[in-house]
Amino acid sequence: MTSLNRRRFLSTASAASLALAAPAIGRAGISANDKIGVAVVGVNGRGGEHISEFLRDDRTEIRVIVDVDEAVANRRCDDIEKKQGLRPKPVSDMRQAFEDDAVDIISTATPNHWHALTGIWAMQAGKDAYIEKPVCHNVLEGTALIAASRKYGRMCQVGTQCRSSKAIIEAVAFMRSGGIGEVKLARGLCYKRRKSIGAKGDYAIPATVNFDMWSGPASLTDPRCTRPNFHYDWHWQRHYGNGDLGNQGPHQTDIARWGTGYRYSPVTHPLLRRASGLSGRTQG
User: Fold this and answer.
1) Which residues 6+ apart lie within 8 Å of 196 measured at CB?
2) Which of 69, 97, 185, 188 places its Cα 20 to 30 Å from the Cα of 125?
3) How far apart are CA 216 and CA 67, in angstroms?
């Protein structure tokens, strides 16, 4: 793995976000009798659920665990070894997983500021990708993911748990069949009790965390960690955290769009269309 300083790293990340890098890397055909090699990127929180689902699927084998917290990565690898019989390789740099020929697909549950670039890099390396919500940090990143999927011929999926809810599936079907008449407006609401996130402060980074790698494409802040719970409170980190608008909001936004059947054009500015390789066609 070539060592990168931060300036070069961010420059590379910016270029990749437009999906204009190297040509596609095709994946060799996989026999139906072979296991699908999996790398899970970001495994402290929601990534643990990704691990559980892959362990329940006989078609898959978790071969690489990526986390910038060395302690978290090794703990997950130990647990996976007990359950699947094979210990995954722990790495802190996701690019090592993307370069690994034993990996066919990746799923990621990193902090939000990493989502889009993780998916783009994975598809450039010939991997199919599942990205935890929110799929991107802004419209340009989402557009770049669509362009990367088309350019490299890879699958890119994002999911929300609401799409698997039998009650919501039936409600949406009823509504879209005219059950409540013509729907022209939807509002997304969610009421949940949340403890105080605490005052802004200056807290220590866990000793086992590679903070420069954790920050990745996000801006470095001073102080570096403004909330006491490093592994969750990044949602409220200034400059790149997006609070519950980006945490819970995608669920309600998705249901609203799903229920109304609303379709949108991902980009409107001609420079963005040209940079991403999109024609501006309406996307579902």
Assistant:
1) none
2) 69
3) 13
- In sequence order, the β-bridge partners of residue 209 are 69
> In whole angstroms, what separates CA 87 from the centre of its chain?
24
Distance CA 200, CA 196 (A): 12
Query: Global pTM?
Result: 0.78
One-letter amino acid for residue 136 of the chain: C
- pLDDT tens for 107-125 read 999 999 999 999 999 999 9
Structure tokens at 38: 């999996």
Domain residue limits at 272: 163-190+248-276
CATH number of the structural domain spanning residue 66: 3.40.50.720
pLDDT band at residue 234 using 50, 70 and 90 as cut-offs: confident
Q: What amino acid occupies position 245?
A: L
**Alpha-carbon span 235 to 68, nearest angstrom:** 17
Is 195 within a domain? no
Same domain, yes or no: 59 and 88: yes
Q: How many helices (H) and strands (E) does the chain have?
A: 11, 6
